[in-house]
Amino acid sequence: MGKRVAVVLAGCGVYDGSEIHESSAVLVHLSREGAEAEVYAPDVDQMHVVDHVKGQPTQEKRNVLVESARIARGNIKDLAKLDVKGLDALIIPGGFGVAKNLSTWATQGKNCIISKEVEDVLKAFHAAKKPIGLCCISPVLAAKLFPGCELTVGHDTECEKWPYAKTAETMKELGCKHVNKHVTEIHVDVKNKLVTTSAFMCNAPIHEIYDGIGKMVREVVRLA
């Protein structure tokens, strides 16, 4: 029997939802590993909607579950119905929706609040000692919930290649150990069963991001 892995999405689109390429990479690599993906998203309104051509917010309103269904090809469930007992692992792709719709990281940083449904799911997998895979900005969720855990969001020195490196510093302020890794590498926190990779936190070719996510997915499935 293949492993059953919950994939939690945060909308559809890098600026206000889940990063589409990261989400797709997770689903492709899970399929390749013979794992069954069960896609979930919270049934809530997005923080806001961003015009991805202009990169600016609009007056529109959209629902996180409805938008996430675009990536899941309609095969998606309300996050409130997730039951950790029937699942072997959890993966959360990145995208600003993680920091806007699953938490308030985008506006409050280390003082953020994580949505209750997302917090409950992460804590349930952690308590059950089931692996959790996180990429791009989503490791901040673990940084907030599991003090002392080990994570990577890439590098901690800002430059053209690593434009979001300040995130690593904020995670350290939360008491986490940040481990610098290249985009094609992962970090495994054995004690907490957390597998992280930087993905689009790095200004890298898309195939390198895809490969790094592949390593994360393979390790999550192996640990499950």
Detail the topology: elements first, then pairings.
Elements: E1 4-8, H1 20-32, E2 36-41, E3 49-51, E4 56-58, H2 64-71, E5 77-78, E6 89-92, H3 96-100, H4 105-108, H5 116-127, E7 132-135, H6 139-145, E8 150-151, H7 166-173, E9 177-178, E10 187-189, E11 194-197, H8 206-223
Parallel strand pairs: 1-2, 1-6, 2-5, 6-7, 7-11, 8-9
Antiparallel strand pairs: 3-4, 10-11
Helix pairs in contact: 1-8
Describe this structure in words.
With about 220 residues, this protein is α/β, with parallel strands linked by helices. Helix content is about 35%, strand content about 15%. It has eight helices and eleven strands. The protein has helices spanning about 20-30, 65-70, 95-100, 105-110, 115-125, 140-145, 165-175, 205-224, and strands spanning about 5-10, 35-40, 50, 55-60, 75-80, 90, 130-135, 150, 175-180, 185-190, 195. The longest helix has 18 residues, at about 205-224. The model has no long low-confidence stretch (mean pLDDT about 95).
Jot down its keywords.
single chain; 224 residues; alpha/beta; Rossmann fold; 11 strands; globular
